[in-house]
Amino acid sequence: SVQTRIVSETPRPAKPPRSLGLFFNKLRAGKAVTVAYLGGSITAGAGASDGAKTSYRALTTNWLRQHFKEAQINELNAGVAGTGVL
Questions:
Q1: Under DSSP, is residue 48 helix (H, G, I), strand (E, B) or coil?
Q2: Is 6's pLDDT higher than 90?
Q3: Which residues partner with 38 through β-bridges?
Q4: Strand partners, 79
């Protein structure tokens, strides 16, 4: 007799990434972290009244610094204006 094996077409979900949890563990422990912001014009600060102070990138970094005062939070702005949309 011929046996049929059913194989699911849907791949199993991968284990959830732990990097975000590890990131917050470092912050809670007061360790140094670097937050890299990758993107285009908005990431670079275009459209903000002051890109260094009011862009989403600056606001996010400031929020982290306010909530994790013991941690050293470094910001890497890798936003490149004028890259367009894919």
A1: coil
A2: no
A3: 78
A4: 39
* 72 Cβ contact list (under 8 Å, min separation 6): 31, 32, 33
CA 11 to chain CA centroid, Å, is 25
Q: Which two tokens mark 42?
A: 């908005």
**What are the backbone angles phi and psi of residue 2, rounded to the nearest 5°?**
-100, 130
Looking up tokens 């990431």, which residue turns up? 43
Whole-angstrom distance, CA of residue 6 vs CA of residue 79: 47
Residue 24 neighbours by CB under 8 Å, 6+ apart = none
pTM value is: 0.71
Q: Residues in the chain, how many?
A: 86
Token pair for 86: 């894919």
How confident is the model over 69-79, as pLDDT tens digits?
Answer: 999 999 999 88
8 Å CB contact between 81 and 46: yes
